[in-house]
Structures are given as C-alpha cells and as structure tokens.
Amino acid sequence: MSQNTEPEDDPLVCCICYDEAGEQGFMEPNPCKCTGTIKIHLACYEQVRDEFGQCGICKTLFPKEITIVYEDGYIIEKFWAITNQGYTYKHGEYKLFKNGVLRTHKNYSMNRIHGQSIIYNDSGYIHSITQYVNDSKHGLEQEFYPNGNIKQEIEYLNNIQHGRCTKYFANKVVNLITHYVHGIRHGPFISHYPNGHVDILSTYNHGKLHGEFIKHYSYGAIQKKIIYNNGHTVSTVHNNPR
Predict the structure, then answer these.
(1) Which of 9, 14, 137, 232 is 20 to 30 A distant from 160 in Cα terms?
(2) Given the DSSP bridges, would you call strands 126-133 and 112-113 parallel, antiparallel or unpaired?
(3) Helix segments in the chain, DSSP class H
(4) Are 200 and 174 in contact (CB under 8 A)?
(5) Is the peptide bond preceding residue 29 cis, with omega within 30 degrees of 0?
C-alpha cells in the first residue's frame, strides 16, 4: 500500500538569476508586480535597476537614486528617478541642498510634483508646506514667517484658490479670513488690526461686495457703514467720533 504525502511547496526563485534563496535573502515586499514564488534578490535588483531600469518579467520600472553636484559644490540635488524609453523622470523623494543645508524636500511622480512639498528658508526654518496632485496645488498650502510663526493658510483646488484663506500678522494675530470659490472671492470677509480689533466686516458675492460693509477704527468703534448691491454702493453712513 502506498503512503500519501503532502505535496511540497514550490521553492521561491529569483526572477533575475533563477536561483533559490541560498545565502541571499529575498526583498520583502517585492519591488515589482511579480507574485507567488517569484521573488528578487537585493543584489540582483540593484544590478537590474542600474542596467535596465525595469523588471524583465512584469516590466515594472525601478527607481534609482541620483546625485547632481553643481560646479561650485554649493547646490546639490538628490532624487529618485526612473528611466523609460531613453528618458529619465524624477520619481519619488527629491531633496535640494544649498551650502549643505536642506532647502527643498518634495515628492515626484513621473516628473510631476505629487504629494507634500516643503521649502526651507536660509535659517533652516520651514518657509512653506504645499500639497500637490499631478503638479498642481491641491489642498492646503501653509506659509511661515522667518521665525517659524504661521503667515498664511490657503486652500487650493487644481491650482486655483478654492476654500478658506487665512492670513496672520507676525505677532500671530489673525490678519484676515476670507473664502474663495474657483479663484473668486465669495462669502464672508473679516480683517483685523495687529492689536486684534476688527477692521472690516463684509461679504462678497462672486468677487463683488454685496450687503453690509463695516469699517472700524483701530480702537474698536465703527468708522463707517456702506451697503453694497453686487459691487454698487447703495448707501454710506459715516460715524465721526466725538
């Protein structure tokens, strides 16, 4: 009588050298789309990445790190790139250094800025943080003063201001709050003096003042009131302090 045995699992094989693990370990997770028993040794991956730029089976493009040092050595670029049909594309993390100091840190997808982009000032503080989708500002952009305090926050949709816009004085007091719809100011508007007192209260309707516009003195009293109808002045009342 024959004895039943469990079938053995197929061994893991490197798709480059067709060898099993041996002394080399396989990369986890796979750097390409190959699945199942097909794996890649790290050494094989680095060789293929540098020579051909892609997996020979599934044709996944492999990024490699590139460093560019300009003549004076003052500016250095470090980024990941992929090569396809003779062209090199930034793809992955990108860093720009000036005099050894990180000035730009962003991410690329096929030469398009995609994800978070951070710009630093000469002092090493963050100057701005911007969200990108396919090379267009999309989401929140924050800009900072040289000392690190927030300067402004602007929302974008496909590279156009869309949503809330808030600006601040250097002392952290809110300068103004307004809203945009597809690049046009629309909705409530409020601005302040550096001491925190309200300066202007108004409303915009598709880029035009509409409704009540109230201007204040820096100490808080109302200076004047104007009624607008789609950008046209209807009435004005001045309040002269005694």
Answers:
(1) 232
(2) unpaired
(3) 42-51
(4) no
(5) yes
What single DSSP character describes residue 9? P
Paired tokens of 15: 């798709």
pTM: 0.81
User: What residues have CB less than 8 Å from 22, skipping those under 6 apart?
Assistant: none
| Pairwise pLDDT comparison (234 vs 81), residue with the higher score | 234
Give the tens place of pLDDT for each residue, 183-211: 999 999 999 999 999 999 999 999 999 99
What residues does each domain of the chain span? 8-61
Higher pLDDT, 198 or 123: 198
The answer to whether 140 and 154 are in contact (CB under 8 A) is: yes
Distance between CA atoms of residues 24 and 40, nearest Å: 10
The three-state secondary structure class of 67 is: strand
C-alpha R_g of the chain: 29
Q: Read off the tokens for 112.
A: 């398009």
CA distance 109 to 220: 51
